[in-house]
Amino acid sequence: MLWIKAFHIISVISWMAALFYLPRLFVYHTMSEDDISRERFKIMERKLLRGIANPAMGATYIFGIWMMWLGWGYYSTQMWFWCKIVLVALLTGYHHACVAYWKQLRDDRCTKSHTFFRVFNELPVFLLVGIVILVVVRPF
User: Fold this and answer.
1) Does residue 22 contact residue 105 with C-beta atoms inside 8 Å?
2) Which pLDDT score is estimated for 101?
3) Rounded Cα gap, residues 121 and 81, in angstroms
4) 3-state SS string over the chain?
5) What are the pLDDT digits (tens) for 25-43?
6) Of 77, 78, 83, 123, which residue is the least packed, with the fewest Cβ within 10 Å?
7) How far from chain centre, in Å, is Cα 53?
8) Which distant-in-sequence residues (6+ apart) come within 8 Å of 121 by Cβ?
9) Inter-residue contact 88 to 11 (CB < 8 Å)
10) Cα(58)–Cα(77) distance, rounded to whole angstroms?
11) Nearest to 27, CA basis, from 35, 12, 37, 36
């Protein structure tokens, strides 16, 4: 179980790093004024999403579900666990929103401003804080 937990934590850290950086790239992408810069950001965003964010999210789910399966008797009765699941679902929704914005930017049809993406970039912080508090403190 400890090995699974270690790989779950590594996956979560990788996923969060990608979710923190991808919208930051969106900020710079929307601020770029020349085609060369925009094309460079498209490449960086694609590589980050496909090479890190998507695999890390998948690994997070695989290891998380594995741990849940092994400890279902305990987890299924814990309110903190179910609250965590809700926050993870919201985080997954955020990930998919990033994918949608990436596709819009890739196709040069995004109407969002760099200011929007600066605010959007901060949202996963709140989810991460909530998830960590629920897992470590287990307030209920």
Assistant:
1) no
2) 98
3) 26
4) CHHHHHHHHHHHHHHHHHHHHHHHHHHHHHHCCCHHHHHHHHHHHHHHHHHHHHHHHHHHHHHHHHHHHHCHHHHCCCHHHHHHHHHHHHHHHHHHHHHHHHHHHHCCCCCCCHHHHHHHCCHHHHHHHHHHHHHHHCCC
5) 999 999 999 999 999 999 9
6) 77
7) 7
8) 20, 23, 24, 26, 27
9) no
10) 25
11) 37
Cα 74 to Cα 59: distance, rounded to the nearest angstrom = 22
Name the residue type at position 121: N
Q: What are phi and psi of 101, to 5 degrees?
A: -65, -40
What pTM does this model have?
0.95
pLDDT in the model for residue 80 = 98
